[in-house]
Amino acid sequence: MKEIFHRTSVRRYTGAPVEPAQVEQMLRAAMAAPSACNQQPWEFYVTARRDTLNALAACSPYAQMLQTAPLGFVVCYRTACQVPAYAQIDCAAATENLLLMADALGLGAVWIGIAPQEERMAAVREAIDLPAHLSPFCLVACGHPDGERRQQDRYDPARIHTLP
User: Is the pTM of this model over 0.85?
Assistant: First the structure.
């Protein structure tokens, strides 16, 4: 799967809108992720509204690219799920699938960490009026990349340990 070795964190976008069919494909990919006990704790908020994207950009010093992105996702998890200790891990798998599908569609995206930083989680909760039964996990800025960037080769054999 070439997207694994092509995907990079894209922070600059052309401004062209992302098509609804592309949004659905990214969300389908996200929801195809594995989860503990198949609990699927994720919920996704999607916005192309400039005022909402700007409000989300203010939730973290690392979210400024949302000010120019044509699309944003808020990945959340239900706090009352079957195995709550794994809900964030499940959302991480879903987010990676979303990022890989964005790349496969010729889009660019970047994962913006929110959890477990309580002040950032509270800011996102307020920015989108998140219901109390959900917790924000991360933000994803998405759009058509403004330029091309090659992925770094991160393979490091020194980090591989073979057990007897």
Answer: yes
